[in-house]
C-alpha cells in the first residue's frame, strides 16, 4: 500500500493501526487493528460516535477476546489464557498489510461518495462495519453491537 497517496489523517490512522498490530504481536495489520486505532483516538468524531453507540477501544478488545474463545470452542478447543500465548517479541519488524486491507481501502474510498472523494477515518470505519465476514463482524455480533445502527450514526455525523 502506498502511504503517499493517502490523506494525512489516513496516514496517521494507518500508522496507529500498525502500532496496534505490533502491540498485539501480530505480523499482519487487519481490519481489527484499524478499528482499534480508530477507537483509540477519543478526539475523533468517529470514536465519539462509536462510543455513543456502545463501542469503545476496551469494549472492542473484550469483544475480540470473546470471539477468539467462541471460535475455539466451536472447534472443540479450550481457550488458553492470552498471557500464555505471548511469543518472543519481533525484532522491530514492521507488520505487513493483511489481505483484507486493500478491500477495505477500496470500499472506504468509493462507498457512497464516488472515486474522487478524499477518504476519511469515518469512511474507513463504515467500510469495516459493513464487512460481513471475518473476526470483526463476529466479535461485534457477539458483543451485541448493532452495526447497522452504528453505520447510520456514523453516516449522519
UniProtKB/TrEMBL annotation:
Statement: the UniProt record of this protein carries the keyword Repeat: yes
Origin: domain of life: Bacteria
Pfam families in UniProt: Clp_N (PF02861)
Chain ranges of the Clp R domain: 1-70
UniProt keyword annotations, A-Z: Repeat
The name this protein goes by in its record: Clp R domain-containing protein
Taxonomic path: Bacteria, Bacillati, Actinomycetota, Actinomycetes, Micrococcales
Amino acid at each position: 500500500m502506498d502511504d503517499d497517496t493517502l490523506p494525512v489523517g489516513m496516514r496517521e490512522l494507518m500508522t496507529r493501526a500498525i502500532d496496534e498490530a505490533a502491540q498485539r504481536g501480530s505480523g499482519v495489520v487487519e481490519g481489527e487493528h484499524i478499528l482499534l486505532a480508530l477507537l483509540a483516538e477519543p478526539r475523533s468524531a468517529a470514536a465519539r460516535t462509536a462510543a455513543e453507540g456502545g463501542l469503545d477501544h476496551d469494549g472492542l478488545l473484550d469483544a475480540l477476546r470473546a470471539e477468539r474463545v467462541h471460535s475455539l470452542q466451536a472447534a472443540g478447543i479450550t481457550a488458553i489464557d492470552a498471557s500464555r500465548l505471548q511469543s518472543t517479541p519481533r525484532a522491530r519488524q514492521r507488520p505487513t498489510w493483511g489481505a483484507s486491507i486493500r478491500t477495505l481501502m477500496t470500499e472506504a474510498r468509493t462507498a457512497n461518495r464516488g472515486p474522487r472523494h478524499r477518504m476519511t477515518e469515518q469512511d474507513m470505519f463504515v467500510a469495516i462495519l459493513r464487512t460481513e465476514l471475518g473476526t470483526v463482524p463476529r466479535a461485534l455480533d457477539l458483543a451485541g453491537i448493532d452495526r447497522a445502527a452504528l453505520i447510520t450514526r456514523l453516516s449522519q455525523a
